[in-house]
Amino acid sequence: xxxxxxxxxxxxHFLGEEVDGHGEGSxxxxxxxxxxxxxxxxxxxxxxxxxxxxxxxxxxxxxSDAPRFQLKLFGIDKFAAQKDLNRxxxxxxxxxxxxxxxxxxxxxxxxxxxxxSEENRAAAIPIVEAFKFKKSDNLRAEIVHxxxxxxxxxxxxxxxxxxxxxxxxxxxxxxRDAEKEEKEDTRTPQEKINDQVTPLWRMPYAEQLALKSVRxxxxxxxxxxxxxxxxxxxxxxDEKREDLKYITKLKKGDRICPxxxxxxxxxxxxxxxxxEFTIGFDLDGNxxxxxxxxxxxxxxxxxxxxxxxxxVPAAAKFVASTLxxxxxxxxxxxxxxxxxxxxxxxxxxxxxxxxxVMVIVQINAVDVxxxxxxxxxxxxxxVFQETGKITTFLVQESSEKHNGFVENAPMHVWFGDGxxxxxxxxxxxxxxxxxxxxxxxxATNGLYGRVREWxxxxxxxxxxxxxDPDAAxxxxxxxxxxxxxxxxxxxxxxDLCCGTGTIGLTMAPAVKxxxxxxxxxxxxxxxRFNAEMQGCTNVAYICSKVEDxxxxxxxxxxxxGDEVVAVLDPPRAGVHGAVIQAVRAxxxxxxxVFVSCDFEAAMNNFIDLCRPTSKKYQGKPFRPIRxxxxxxxxxxxxxEFVMExxxxxxxxxxx
Length: 655
Ligand SMILES: C[S@@+](CC[C@H](N)C(=O)[O-])C[C@H]1O[C@@H](n2cnc3c(N)ncnc32)[C@H](O)[C@@H]1O
Description:
Mean pLDDT: 81
Strand content: 15-25%
Radius of gyration: 26 Å
Bound molecules: S-adenosylmethionine
CATH class of the domain at 274-424: Mainly Beta
Structural class: alpha+beta
Helix content: 25-40%
Strand order of the largest sheet: 7-6-5-8-9-10-11
Distance between the termini: 38 Å
CATH architecture of the domain at 274-424: Beta Barrel
């Protein structure tokens, strides 16, 4: 990608003694940042100079009239001033292209940058995340869609529905600004939807991969920098500090562990197996089913069909248009999210390579007679069935304010058996409506294939170059070499956050035992069913939070002499610190294969696995050994990431 460069940790701006939120006694909740967003009073600030000439003013005026693509940079030292941001921008390498304006308010932990194009904004992400401020850590750039607050990183569904946070009240200056921006925006409505759902859709795929690659390089730099912060901390004893000595042996610019190139997705378009659409009104006021456009007109948010969305498969578009036609003729009202009245709310479509299609429609049936509700849904059910393309149809009722499917609300099956099936790595999996399943099956084959390989064949523990350069080179080569999985009769695989059992079941034939832990009861039922369907008898599932289950796991399922390997595949924001503490405290776990769909958001988990031993984080720290990103989400900034971590040997001070 033109001009994009890696900003590896250059060992010059360590965090000193205080590593934000990571002191010995600090809490280690996941890294999601909750920031109050204040859009008012954005001032035009030149990136490089304080004084502006008439020509510059004219240029700035022209720039400010152009469509602006907003990026928020979180994690900035709250005491940094506008001039500190300007300094960072001026020093950016490579320089930021198309920056229109920027703003940092003293005492807020974020800055806002506006760009002249979607592409320049996307290209800026790795560059701004490498900015240095006095006390900043884990800088994290988030795209802000026109007229919307930043997408919450822990809410996949909101990204899918294209929904805007409910507390986004219009009116006042912000509402007027939004209306002005809408008028100035020359994009077609469909382009806006595409920008919202698939922000990288205009970028060639090779450039998307390059962009993601830089983020991971920077992310590993952040991890290294944070761990070095412990080396400088007075709170860490000399003895504990020794455990992190391996970092000091890395040469300047060396990564904390090898990082492979981003593995591309085998399919780039139409890959999403799960799509959620809102039922609303289009720009002409007609009833529509699709993505909520971040636009606000006369108190109504606009919903446009997913016609050109690159990641939405034809089967999901077909369901959306079939439902749209039905809803247009329906006597029942579309749900109004301001008045909280109306019947039709949302639809979720799950489409799998087996040909299975699950449709879940969400309705608000408050004040609707049971007989009427049944009549309407029976009639929709008949339409869906007549298409011959939908395998199962379910309905969820919700009167909740929140625009999304409600986790624990019941789903009523209208036809079909209420579940769908998918094939992964040659195995068949049943998926219940509330169970998680990766949304890009061909790319998941690659990711889970790699997880299986790394679980079964550990990379040799690194030999630090300063101790033995030849052995270090050989170990690095071995870490890069793909090896064939072998049956290991003493491996007990802990599939933590196992969902429907996918990862563990692909490994069950090759290990002594698989123990899955998952907190969603339906997913655990699926996992048990899937194990039985595959004839796996060496598996056990515990329906519990991981942090509460570790004692049971060890007392019931692990024997002396077992090699315990943990796969951790948590939600986007990572797991609660208690899970990491539990894994650290289990002396039997010497290897962790961590799968993350947001490396930056789960950064605290990685830091906590690797930080020096303390009262809270017991047991020897883990060390990152190797890592590889897999692109499961083309056209979006998201990417999966897998890292193997190994427990430091007991005599690690000599390693
Ligand atoms: C990213 S999904 C991975 C599921 C599975 N590994 C797969 O690939 O299909 C994360 C899973 O973690 C579960 N989960 C989240 N927090 C958990 C916790 N504290 N304990 C147990 N399960 C948890 C969620 O219900 C979800 O099924």
